């Protein structure tokens, strides 16, 4: 039982920093999600990591995002 708890805490110690350092990126920054926008240029210089979230902001009904 004690070894199971130790394993749990080791895994938690490894995962916790990734969860704390996760960032939200608003796609397109202040322009949001729109057509005719250079998203490759927008992504340059950004350091995306596992756990980060991409937030798509757009006027409802004007655009959509497909998974």
Characterize this entry briefly.
The chain is an alpha+beta fold. The chain has 2 helices and 2 strands.
Task: Describe the protein in words.
The protein is built from 2 helices and 2 strands, in the order αβαβ. The protein is of the alpha+beta class and 67 residues long. Strands 1-2 form a two-stranded parallel ribbon. Strand 1 (24-26), helix 2 (39-43) and strand 2 form a beta-alpha-beta unit. The longest helix has 19 residues, at 2-20.
Which features does this protein show?
67 residues; alpha+beta; 2 helices; 2 strands; 36% helix; Phytocyanin_dom; Cupredoxin; Phytocyanin domain-containing protein; signal; electron transfer activity
Outline: elongated
Give the amount of beta strand, in percent. 5-15%
Number of strands: 2
Distance between the termini: 42 Å
Sketch the topology as an H/E string, one letter per element: HEHE
The helix content is 25-40%
- Total helices: the number is 2
What is the CA-atom radius of gyration, in angstroms?
Answer: 18 Å
What summary fits the major beta sheet? 2 strands, parallel
Mean pLDDT: 80
Spatial order of the strands in the main sheet?
Answer: 1-2
**Uncertain regions spanning at least 5 consecutive residues:** none
Question: What structural category characterises the helix and strand content?
Answer: alpha+beta
Pfam family, one: Cu_bind_like
Domain Phytocyanin: 23-67
Protein name: Phytocyanin domain-containing protein
GO molecular function, one term: electron transfer activity
């Amino acid at each position: 039982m004690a070894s199971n708890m130790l394993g749990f805490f080791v895994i938690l110690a490894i995962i916790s920093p990734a969860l704390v350092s996760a960032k939200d990126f608003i796609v397109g920054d202040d322009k949001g999600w729109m057509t005719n926008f250079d998203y490759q240029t927008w992504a340059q210089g950004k350091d995306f990591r596992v756990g980060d979230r991409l937030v798509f902001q757009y006027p409802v009904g004007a655009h959509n995002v497909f998974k």
